[in-house]
Amino acid sequence: MTERVDPSLPTPLGGDLTIVDLSSGIAGAYCGKLLVDGGADVIKVEPPEGDPLRHRRLLDDPAPDINTGSVLFQFLALSKASVVADGEILGDRELVEKLVRGADAVIWSAGPGVGSREEFAPESLRRLAPRAVIVAITPFGLTNEPAAPVNEFTLQAMSAGGISRGRADREPLAVGGSYGDWIAGVFAAQGLLTAYTRARVTGVGELVDVSVLEALHLTQAEFFPTKLAATGVPPRTKRVRAIPGIHPSRDGYVGFQITTGQQWQDFTAMIGRPEWAEDPSLTRYIERIKRAREITTIVDEWTAERSTDDVCELAALFRLPVAPVANGETVPKLEQTVARGWYLQHPAGFTHPEVPYTFHGNVTRRAFGSPPKLGQDTAAARERTITPKLPTPTGITRSLPFEGLRIADFTAFWAGPIIGHYFAMLGADVIHVESPRRPDGYRNATLKHDMSEGWWEASPCFSATNTNKRDLAVDLSTAEGREIARALIAQSDVVIDNFSTRVMPQWGFDYESLRSIKPDLIVVRAPGFGLSGPWVDRLAYATTIEQASGVAFMTGFPDDRPDLGGGSMDSTAGTHAAFAIQLALEHRRRTGEGVLLEVPQFTTGINVCAEQVLEHSSSGRLLGRIANRSWTAAPQGSYRVLDAERPFADLPVDDWVAISVETDDQWLALCSLIGAEDLARDDTLCTVDGRRSEHDRIDEAITGWTRSRTAAEVVDAVRSVGIPCAPWLQMHELTTVPQLVDRKLYEMVEHPVMGTLPIITYPVHFESGPEEWHRRRAPLLGEHNAEILAELGYTVDQVDALEESGVIGRRVEASLAAW
């Protein structure tokens, strides 16, 4: 394995955090990997037959060697220890009790092994180790145990992301590649470190409750309920594709994301269509949808004549967001990943991604150790004595973990603001810095499409990702504005930006300059493709990252072009960055040193898409688009049902259910339910491989049964026989899911322009709070200018003069409203 780690440098966690992992599945495993890479010690407790991920086989693969495990297990288990414990044996249960009592944190999810026993359930673990952080990962949260099996596919259906993905004439589409399990793992790691931060002060542990469904709502739905409440009209009522979006090239596919009016003008110039540029209506996305066939056909013809590289190079010259649609074979070969060394070669022969962040300073990730053989550390664990490193209860209370932390938030859109938003919801003073001349681009997602007065305060998206923050609107193109920024930075702990790489340095805010202002400052740079390399100046949106990292290649129908995940890479990148900031804060706490932290969107994308590269590099198989089918289960798919009445006149008639058969027993139960005795008697269908080979025939039988029933009838019947099933929810139904209503995932927030809005909270519930996440609405533009400047030492007269000269402001000039 090619390592890039300086062994003389410390890791952020420095071995101070001991974690016992009782989880099963990708989410818990990725949570543990993120933490072990940061320097924690992770002890994986497995049943005698090994963790289920050791047995993971895709399609018709032979069963992997249990001792080494599947290639996915080997990647997720790097540097961990393996302890085997049989829950039926008293001595083994006592061993697990000893490990838990000595741990600083425990990761738990339902599955085989000791974690399935009542004495190791989350509430029991909380009593067993009162100083430890107990992280539980479940489908709906601990307060909503499902009555029937669920899996990530059915949870995706309940998040509504797929109802607008794909083609109007075909079924809703899930995001390929087990996306929900990966992102739930990030939230779990983030929640664990947050609770650890609080426990380190109080000496009291807590239960951290992570819901996969809630994680999907935050990352898949992009504030649909907030938009609906603000407009009264469900957004994206039909399944449509971006225009332009993904198009065939001479040697593959290439993807665009044309968002602004200027980008549309430049795109039309690039492909030689001046008549489109002259039509002002086409600058609006909704108008391009109306002419989708015409535009798509012409763009397809243009891209098909050129290679992917040629299109990307030309589009980059026009400053257009563009990317090759990469896959498990090509992602590691992209010039940017090669130049930055973002893939490593494992001794076992497979290729895997680097961690999603890079520290530039006197700290490093942990050097990758080998994945453990089954039970290789059991004997050592029996002899080992571990004690919690957290203090005994101190009597100190701390209602919010990040009280006293100040973050200067120089970000825009979603991927950047979501980073600071997490800390703002948990007590930090986050100051969102934008310009009265060029405000946060998310404000452009306005309800006032005519850009009339106050358009910048009518963005449901901005309102949803900036609650609890304060706003400073200052023109950084002026010397006075930059002086204000320097004063703010001098009083901050963390500076975040997600601009293109040239923006902050051109204002004089490169890392060395920032460090001269405050030596222990943590500086977070989160550009699309990193701070160096041949793609350093390329623009990127969430969809660009989906195209380049492999999400798009795995999403869609096998007989059609790749599709998009729906912007999920913004929230995915932001959540990884927030986790990495916590690692940097731990390093500063231990050493007093600041650090430059680089968290490109792209590297977060290639981590949650790791399996396709692992698989291709180990077996040569290219994991591609299989629509809603599964690599590990069959049958699985979206099935048409009777249509229900619509509360909105313009909603399409479009009701579907998601069904996933994961075991042979479930298959027989489904056959009995739908009256398909002939299928049950067919010996070729008694295995998952056999059912996969006859999937079309099986789907026809299932649809014949579902088509005469409502979604509710199908879901109730299928769940009653123990099979994962869920309706594909429409966007207006998101806030009515009983499990989410019970857990208050959406809080009502009063906004002075848009009224009362439901705003999503967070998929991590902390035993010690907060009880209320959105304690203050998102700020108006420049709302806190005077307040913040007073804290920085400016007088009232100076503030008035700065506003008079336009250095600060609370409105966007009408002449600039078209920007």
Descriptive keywords:
36% helix, disordered C terminus, CoA-Trfase_III_dom_1_sf, 819 residues, Rossmann fold, single chain, globular, alpha/beta, seven-stranded mixed sheet, 33 helices, formyl-coa transferase, domain 3
| Count of extended strands | 24
Summing up helix and strand content along with how strands pair, one would put the structural category as alpha/beta
Task: Specify the overall morphology.
Answer: globular
Q: Main sheet, how many strands, which sense, barrel? A: 7 strands, mixed
Helix content: 25-40%
* Beta-strand share of residues: 5-15%
What is the third-level CATH name, the topology of the domain at 406-545 and 558-608 and 775-816? Answer: Rossmann fold
Query: Strands across the major sheet, in which order?
Result: 3-2-1-4-5-6-24
Rg over CA atoms: 26 Å
Q: N-to-C terminal Cα separation, in Å?
A: 49 Å
Low-confidence stretches: 815-819
Question: Total number of helical segments?
Answer: 33
Classify the oligomer. Answer: single chain
Overall CATH class of the domain at 406-545 and 558-608 and 775-816: Alpha Beta
Structural description of this entry:
This protein has 819 residues and is α/β, with parallel strands linked by helices. Among the domains are: 258-320, no CATH class; 406-545 and 558-608 and 775-816, 3-Layer(aba) Sandwich (Rossmann fold), CATH 3.40.50; 633-733, 2-Layer Sandwich (formyl-coa transferase, domain 3). 36% of the residues lie in helices and 13% in strands. The strands form 6 sheets. A 7-stranded mixed sheet has the order 3-2-1-4-5-6-24, sandwiched between helices. A hairpin with a 2-residue loop joins strand 7 (246-249) and strand 8 (252-256). Helix 23 (568-591) crosses helix 24. It is globular. The two termini are 49 Å apart. Mean pLDDT is 94; it is low at 815-819. This is Crotonobetainyl-CoA:carnitine CoA-transferase CaiB. Pfam families: CoA_transf_3 (PF02515). GO terms for molecular function: CoA-transferase activity. Keywords: Transferase. It comes from Pseudonocardia oroxyli.
